[in-house]
Amino acid sequence: MTQHMDKTAIFDTLAMQATQRDLVFSTGAQVALKLRRALDDPDCHINTASRLIQAEPLLSARVVAIANSAVYNRSGREIADVHVAVSLLGFQTIRSLAMALVTRQMAGKSKNPLQQELVNKLWEHSAHVASLAHAIARHVTHQDPEAALFAGIIHEIGGFYLLSRAEDYPGLVEGDFDEWVEGGEIKVGRAVIGKLQVPASVTAVMETFWDGFLSIPPTTLADTLLLAEELSPVPSPLHKVDSKNTDSSMKANIEMEIGEETLTRILAESAEEIGSLTKALQF
Fold first, then answer.
1. What is the C-alpha to C-alpha distance for residues 209 and 140, in angstroms, rounded to an integer?
2. pLDDT, tens digit (0-9, with 9 covering 90-100), for 135-163
3. In the chain, what's the furthest Cα-to-Cα distance?
4. Is the distance from CB of 113 to CB of 119 less than 8 angstroms?
5. What is the 3-state secondary structure (H, E, C) of the chain?
């Protein structure tokens, strides 16, 4: 009980700090945030966006990689130029990639092998969910796939902030994450996405996602994210108990209402695109 209360108090503190203080980011993430702000200007020129992207090699590499993925590059002709990649992808997708870099680098590099393993696994999970959400939005729920991609990228952003502060709170990432699942991720996640000025439409999706109620049949953007989370082949390391329950009622309902054969066919037909996008998102 003491451990539970201690962790709960830490989550409250982290949420308060995320709200009241400036979040500390790596140089690359700062460039990505500057890019996102620039893209919010309706008068932003593609040359400006390309120049900002080229200032951060890691972001440049991911933009080009995404542009060459099966989802966006239908012609199959290799793209090597950032400007061409930006033209192909459009600003909405570039915003998602900028936020992907911010999310991925939030936790930084840790000397603690356990903590670094959690960071790596959490991003691998996020990349799978984002790619699945993009495909599900296109083929199942008929929502905006770019909005689904963005939501998938940030859906564990509170967890990355938690891991970024783990060294300040010894023992925080040891043991299970029941307390985190029971309320910590909502408090901290809500504070972080608020600080990062995530659009209200996506914030609303996250609130529904945290509630965990999947409509049957799935039709909304929140349903898209919940379904992608359930179907991810890589579970979140912060949700070990839920993710290992492969016979969950949610999954049974998905198979019953959508039809396992139909969903399987959709995922099989989209497998190349999902795999290509997931790989391109690996920072």
1. 17
2. 999 999 999 999 999 999 999 999 999 99
3. 59
4. no
5. CHHHHHHHHHHHHHHHHHHHCCCCCCHHHHHHHHHHHHHCCCCCCHHHHHHHHHCCHHHHHHHHHHHCCCCCCCCCCCCCCHHHHHHHHCHHHHHHHHHHHHHHHHCCCCCCHHHHHHHHHHHHHHHHHHHHHHHHHHHHHCCCHHHHHHHHHHCCHHHHHHHHCHHHCCCCCCCCCHHHHHHHHHHHHHHHHHHCCCCHHHHHHHHHHHHCCCCCCCCCHHHHHHHHHHHCCCCCCCCHHHHCCCCCHHHHHHHHHHHHHHHHHHHHHCHHHHHHHHHHCCC
Residue 206: both structure tokens together? 């996250």
Indicate the domain borders of the chain.
Answer: 2-280
Residue type for 35, please?
A: L
**pLDDT per position as a tens digit, 50-92:** 999 999 999 999 999 999 999 999 888 899 999 999 999 999 9
Considering the domain delimited by 2-280, tell me its CATH architecture: Orthogonal Bundle (1.10)
Confidence (pLDDT) at 47: 95
